[in-house]
Fold:
Amino acid sequence: MCDALGYGAAMTMTVLVEKTAHGRFRAMTSQPIALAVEADSAANAVSQLKEEIEDRLSKCEVAELEIRSPRQDHPWLRFAGIWKENPEFAAHPKRSAATIYRAAG
Structure:
């Protein structure tokens, strides 16, 4: 199904594989598809998890949403230009450049 991503689209997921106290292996994924399986080996756990994920995805649709913030102004915008009339600030880049050239030469 997965129409939103296109038929056959691939999704890369991070899988955590850990050894359990009983000598088995647990393979787990997180959101958006939180699943876990246990098996006798790490390879079998990952393989079974892949099957579970594919089965689940065959019964659903994956979509992406872009959510825009209702706030229109950037939080740092109110600070823009506060130093433009300060002569010390205007001279700073020139002093910095002169210091760099003296140190390099």
Remarks:
- The two ends are 66 Å apart (CA to CA).
- Residues 8 and 94 are 57 Å apart (CA to CA).
- Residues 1-63 form one domain.
- The longest strand covers residues 16-19.
